[in-house]
């Protein structure tokens, strides 16, 4: 059996060591030294979240390597799903579920050209594709793709009477992020304020 050469990327040395330690004993895979990453057939990027730095790495891997890339991630939301799709990622594993067998199975699946997604993320992906298709069929009509999931969730909470601090707490964002997101929505849709934005998206059936 030919071992699958795997490159592990992680800014946090603890995360890199943890994943490497789980993979190294297994006969199915060969964990490469960083100096040998050009030999990799599979790349695993281990991060807390898909932030700007992680997205930059994923784009670089897509441009400069012939590997199939998976992400082992702590927190993952709809915006992260869009980013990973754009960066050509074909496997997502939550860190809480990333035991040795799951990591090896993911590497093997990637080497075979298969995609790996948790069930709930697959549902989100199918919903995302459906929204894109509706936008293509009726590009001038307002659809859910008018809003990101984060924007829709925030406006839904506004419609339920939550203030900025409460929304920030419920969605695990800073108050500044909540304000910026809501300002972006009202500006992009050319609306006057939050109440106007909520009324508009409810009339259009977007929340």
Automatic annotation (TrEMBL):
<dbReference type="InterPro" id="IPR000792">
    <property type="entry name" value="Tscrpt_reg_LuxR_C"/>
</dbReference>
<keyword id="KW-0238">DNA-binding</keyword>
<keyword id="KW-0805">Transcription regulation</keyword>
<keyword id="KW-0804">Transcription</keyword>
<dbReference type="Pfam" id="PF00196">
    <property type="entry name" value="GerE"/>
</dbReference>
<protein>
    <submittedName>
        <fullName>LuxR C-terminal-related transcriptional regulator</fullName>
    </submittedName>
</protein>
<feature type="domain" description="HTH luxR-type">
    <location>
        <begin position="140"/>
        <end position="205"/>
    </location>
</feature>
<dbReference type="InterPro" id="IPR016032">
    <property type="entry name" value="Sig_transdc_resp-reg_C-effctor"/>
</dbReference>
């Amino acid at each position: 059996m030919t071992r699958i050469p795997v490159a592990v990327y992680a800014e946090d040395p603890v995360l890199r060591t943890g994943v490497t330690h789980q993979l190294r004993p297994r006969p199915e895979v060969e964990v490469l030294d960083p100096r040998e990453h050009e030999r990799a057939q599979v790349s695993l990027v281990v991060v807390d979240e898909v932030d700007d730095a992680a997205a930059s790495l994923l784009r670089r891997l897509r441009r400069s390597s012939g590997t199939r890339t998976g992400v082992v991630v702590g927190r993952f939301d709809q915006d992260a799903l869009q980013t990973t799709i754009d960066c050509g990622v074909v496997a997502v594993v939550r860190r809480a579920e990333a035991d040795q067998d799951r990591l090896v199975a993911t590497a093997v699946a990637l080497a075979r050209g298969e995609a790996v997604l948790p069930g709930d993320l697959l549902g989100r992906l199918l919903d995302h594709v459906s929204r894109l298709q509706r936008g293509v069929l009726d590009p001038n009509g307002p659809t859910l793709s008018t809003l990101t999931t984060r924007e829709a969730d925030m406006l839904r909470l506004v419609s339920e009477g939550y203030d900025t601090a409460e929304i920030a707490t419920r969605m695990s964002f800073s108050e500044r992020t909540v304000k910026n997101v809501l300002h972006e929505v009202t500006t992009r849709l050319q609306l006057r304020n939050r109440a106007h934005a909520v009324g508009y998206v409810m009339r259009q059936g977007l929340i």
